[in-house]
């Protein structure tokens, strides 16, 4: 271990490695540019090699600098999270949790009000504010620090997320024109989707979209797709017979539209949403909220 290197020097190095600009890094860590330069030179001297290539026009990481950044960043994040969690535990669960989700009635499920009320009763010094966050902006919203946690639809393989308790776990339904023969039949299966033009939401990551709507039917036939960009585009297209939408049961409960029917569809996986947060920003508040959600939902399952 190299003796004498302080946490603020590590934080300064990581800021310069991220910004690649000494002035912006100085603003970020609350130092002058000259102090940042001095700190980097001191760190380079003790390590024994240059961490940055500097010219009058640009700053770039050296191979040694990239290696150090890649090793230091996760360790720094874990240390920061541990210290934050310890501080909040010492202070108690207090403050405000900004909880984001796209389309709250669908994502949060029917028990979100009970979860929030139970949490705020248990922790009267802490408040939960629900935020409607556009789907395509969810992770940016969380990573920017604007929010504390999200309710996301699964799967989501983002490496910096902790996936907490499941909020919803739903059967699938097919939204289809009311005069379509399948609506008259009253049910559909995954093989039927190969004969339909299915809604594909362009803003949904492919990992999730392909789990929600597989590219192929069980027999291997391609499922035709019609790309849309907004939720408001979906129901008029379905009513006109231009497309169908494989969705979840709660969508059918919240979105009624003339000439659109909802029928059960078998052969598609159930769809789940879950509470999630940035691993490096795990706090006592978030842990308490996750535990409360688990408690409330377990009680609901036991009652049902």
Describe this protein with a few key phrases:
304 residues, 4-stranded mixed β-sheet, alpha/beta, D-Maltodextrin-Binding Protein, domain 2, 5-stranded mixed β-sheet
Summarize this structure briefly:
By secondary structure, the chain is α/β, with parallel strands linked by helices. It has 12 helices and 13 strands. Keywords: DNA-binding, Transcription, Transcription regulation.
Structure report:
The chain is α/β, with parallel strands linked by helices. It folds into three domains: 7-89, Arc Repressor Mutant, subunit A (Orthogonal Bundle); 92-165 and 273-303, D-Maltodextrin-Binding Protein, domain 2 (3-Layer(aba) Sandwich); 172-269, Periplasmic binding protein-like II (D-Maltodextrin-Binding Protein, domain 2). It has helices at residues 7-19, 22-29, 33-47, 63-91, 104-107, 112-122, 138-143, 181-185, 206-212, 234-239, 249-254, 284-303, and strands at 52-54, 59-61, 95-101, 126-132, 149-153, 161-170, 172-177, 188-189, 198-201, 225-228, 245-248, 260-266, 271-278. The strands form four sheets. A five-stranded mixed β-sheet has the order 4-3-5-13-6. Strands 8-12-7-11 form a four-stranded mixed β-sheet. The protein is elongated, with a radius of gyration of 25 Å. The model has no long low-confidence stretch (mean pLDDT 91).
Kindly name the structural category.
alpha/beta
- What would you report as the Rg, rounded to the nearest angstrom? 25 Å
Distance between the termini: 56 Å
SSE sequence, one letter per element: HHHEEHEHHEHEEEHEEHEHEHEEH
Task: Tell me the layout of helices and strands.
Elements: H1 7-19, H2 22-29, H3 33-47, E1 52-54, E2 59-61, H4 63-91, E3 95-101, H5 104-107, H6 112-122, E4 126-132, H7 138-143, E5 149-153, E6 161-170, E7 172-177, H8 181-185, E8 188-189, E9 198-201, H9 206-212, E10 225-228, H10 234-239, E11 245-248, H11 249-254, E12 260-266, E13 271-278, H12 284-303
Parallel strand pairs: 3-4, 3-5, 8-12, 9-10
Antiparallel strand pairs: 1-2, 5-13, 6-13, 7-11, 7-12
Helix pairs in contact: 1-2, 1-3, 1-4, 2-3, 6-12
Family: Belongs to the LysR transcriptional regulatory family.
Domain HTH lysR-type: 5-62
GO molecular function, one term: DNA binding
